[in-house]
Amino acid sequence: MSETSQKSDGFRRRIRSFIRREGRLTPGQQRALNELGPKYLIEAEGPRIDPAELFGRTAPLTLEIGFGNGDSLVEMAAKDPEQDFIGIEVHRPGVGHLLNGIEHFGLTNLKAVCGDAVPFLEQRLGEQSLDRLLLYFPDPWHKKRHHKRRIVQTPFADLVATRLKPGGLWHLATDWAEYAEHMREVLDAHPAFTAEHEGTGENARPDWRPRTKFERRGEERGHQVFDLLYRRR
């Protein structure tokens, strides 16, 4: 067991950043998992992967945690073929939807993981392997007694810091103002990161981030959206 794994085992036991709400797979999603999964899916746990071997080239690598139905991630990968992308999602319907998107657009620069992000970061990615980490609209666990379940905590930031290259970008977005404040408190105090957003990050979506289903839903409820950008020192 690596030092990183030893340090974060306790974190993984303490914090579960999601609840597996499976939902019903459509026939198309099930077909995608069965037929496309062997080509495009990566196991969440196992030995280190070599991104150059995985994609057949050396290119900047972006990881998105919690891609939902995958539409925005497919859009980013299609618009930026010179970069490689890996998306992680725990819900199989969303993964199946993403796989269908990969097939539809003929993407060769996008792979997916169906599982938990923490063991994937710990086990499968080497240190300084990521150019960008995207965390868009994670579960805010807005009840105070559930705050400990939020994925953005100092131990998780410690892990992310080891996987981002120096100068790498961690881009977070949320439509919960209180969670945005929590994110800023954790990452502003972290010695590995420097904030690049202005002010609170409110209404500051970069042009290269597509709007998501969760974002539109939040806006319909009158929520402001916060985009927070942190650079790895």
Automatic annotation (TrEMBL):
Keyword Lipid biosynthesis recorded: no
Residues the record lists as binding S-adenosyl-L-methionine: 64, 89, 116, 139
Enzyme class: transferase
Chemical reaction(s) catalysed: guanosine(46) in tRNA + S-adenosyl-L-methionine = N(7)-methylguanosine(46) in tRNA + S-adenosyl-L-homocysteine
Gene3D superfamilies named among the record's database cross-references: Vaccinia Virus protein VP39
GO molecular function: tRNA (guanine(46)-N7)-methyltransferase activity
Annotated positions binding substrate: 143, 175, 212-215
Keyword Transferase belongs to the record: yes
Annotated metabolic or biological route of this protein: tRNA modification; N(7)-methylguanine-tRNA biosynthesis
Pfam family, one: Methyltransf_4
Domain of life, per lineage: Bacteria
GO cellular component, one term: tRNA methyltransferase complex
Matching PANTHER family: 3-DEOXY-D-MANNO-OCTULOSONIC-ACID TRANSFERASE/TRNA GUANINE-N 7 - -METHYLTRANSFERASE, PENTACOTRIPEPTIDE-REPEAT REGION OF PRORP DOMAIN-CONTAINING PROTEIN
Function: Catalyzes the formation of N(7)-methylguanine at position 46 (m7G46) in tRNA.
Family: Belongs to the class I-like SAM-binding methyltransferase superfamily. TrmB family.
Protein name (database record): tRNA (guanine-N(7)-)-methyltransferase
Upper classification of the organism: Bacteria, Pseudomonadati, Pseudomonadota, Gammaproteobacteria, Chromatiales
